[in-house]
Hints:
With 725 residues, the chain is of the alpha/beta class. The chain has 28 helices and 14 strands. The model is unreliable at 1-20, 699-703 and 718-725 (pLDDT under 50).
Amino acid sequence: MGGLVEGVAEVDDADAGAAHSAEAARERQQRVRRMRERTRSGCALGLLAAGYLFQVSGIAGAGAALVVLGAALGLLTDVLLPHHARGTERRLARAQFTPAVRQMLRDALLLGGLGRLGVLGPGSTAPLLGAVLACWALHFLCQAVAGAVRARRRLPVVTRNIDASALGLTPSPPALFAHRATVRLLGVAAVLTAGMSASAATGEPLWALLAASCCCAGMLAGIAWLATWLLPGKRVAGEAEALAWLDAWLAEYRPTVGMYFSGGNASAYQANMWLSTLAELDGRPVIVLRERFMVQKIAPTDVPVLCVPKVSHLMRLEHSTLKVLLHPANSGKTSQVLRIPTLKHAFINHGESDKLSSCNPYAKAYDQVWVAGEAARERYALAHIGVEDKDVVEVGRPQLAPIEAAGTRGPVGRDGPLTVLYAPTWEGFTDDPGNTSVLVAGEAIVSALLADPGVRLLYKPHPMTGTVDPRAGEADRRIRALIQQANAGRDGGEPGPEAQAALEEATAELRKLTRVDFGRHADEVERMLRQSAPGPGRAREVEEAARAWEEAYWAAQPARRHLIVTGDGPGLFCCFNEADVLVSDVSSVVSDYLSSEKPYAVANTSGLDDDGFRAACPTVRAATILGPDGTGIDRLLRTVRHPEEDTLAPARAALKVRLLGPAEPPSLVRFNRAVQALVQEAEAREERVRAVDKQPLDAEGEVEAEDERERSQALADALGEDERP
């Protein structure tokens, strides 16, 4: 394992030159991007300053046109800033020059312009000034009421697939008044600016007064409507009521096994890959989340979803029937749930590979580490990170069942087209060599594949590509450009209109089954209301509709056109079934693909020679190794087109068993048995604790004192406090 890092060899002069050229190209692109950002920022600031300058010049020179032009230009700039110069908008906000402040200054200059132009007389100045001030007072009053409504509707628990109607759930308040303060402000500003501009042009103050009065009336009506969400008829349960409901639901549902997940915005795939397995387990599963936004990131499922953001509320799980939590990923918040003494915890990971991250020392915090096969067990033993062999359980990879075995769709023709899937991993959080081929070898690999007229390329980058290293994102964009350029001169073999119609029909059916019945601006409470307990059989219907959509998708694609498959396209396993061969990196993608026993290649961007690369990475031992410059592509394609030359087939079959475990009993059966065994361990622990609690006291009360110390320490650990002196 350490050889992948410690044995990195120096690249030769040619590779160094290529790397230098690539680095220079990346630097040029970064300079161009920074220049564009500075240009947009400069234009935005220039337009904003020009607007105020025109208004001041109009006041100084008594020019109505300049006063109106300046106000309109400033308002237009505020409309465009969030869309075209977000960095400038953030910097202005940090300087306290917010949209509200900018608009107040424009309104003040407009009023000054009306006075300078002689539009305001003794009888109109006070009413107009009062109306404008009332608009601003109502704006801030609306902000206060909106804040109170949002705080009142922020429940301590968020649910999905659970009937939570007992919490008094109601539809969301109007988004324009409750959430979209900037849009509301721009609307009021547009009306006021139009009214005062009309007065400046005509010399009649009535237009400005009428506009301000209309804004006041609209704001008053909106605030009154918004305030009804604070009345008992629309008010949701308070914190104490909501927590009491949570306890009651846990007591009624009686969950036995749960999947615990916490992560960032792009990490939901780590949990989604386990949904089908969780739904098939014996008992009553539940999904426990910590971030509110993650509730909507979880893919369609019938399993109850429970989001408990606060650690103090999470501790209520201790008194439930929940016995086991499965963890597909590590996170900072994982340590919080590990404190609950009544639960057993198993780390199931979101994929296995030869990466160093697959042997994270955090794993020793769990009661057990569940792995697919023997290779992962050995990986932990060699890593020496504190995970004992007795705590490693081989369960296979139950979610790989949809992957078709080699030959399922018939033999690959010698002269027929080959579908090659290039699915590189992302750059990761570490600087380990060879994390991703996108940076070093991606363009060379794609260029070599595109140069073969008999290849149809499917490019499916990792969804987190570029999130840590912007250079990886830039390389990904260049690869996409290469594919689009290759498609421009390629006869795609367009399917008939029937295929497109079938895809549209399948898409509509899938959307109907998975569509959520709320708008884009619905808040958590309305989403809980709309996403109540699902009807029987919904999960099966969604699964069948998704399978039909995948079939329709591939049938509707040009037979020879290269494809870029992103989040809106088919999943990774579906791409596995479509592909004849895989090109990837050292990642769980390779391990999963091995279940098909089809040929695959791995890019060696580690700096090791091929022998060292195979020695350091067991998953590579049945692969064709590609160099950073794409060498090896011709050899790979030949072995696929001429199966008699595929000398790695026996190695793939053996490696499949080593990585993923035996075919019998099925992985889902082994996984379910592991869950039940861990449940029994949790129950046995509870029995031992109850037996200790029932021990008779001796004369000195030593047992009672010891029990009291243990309970106090358990509470201290749960709350993150240490009560020991």
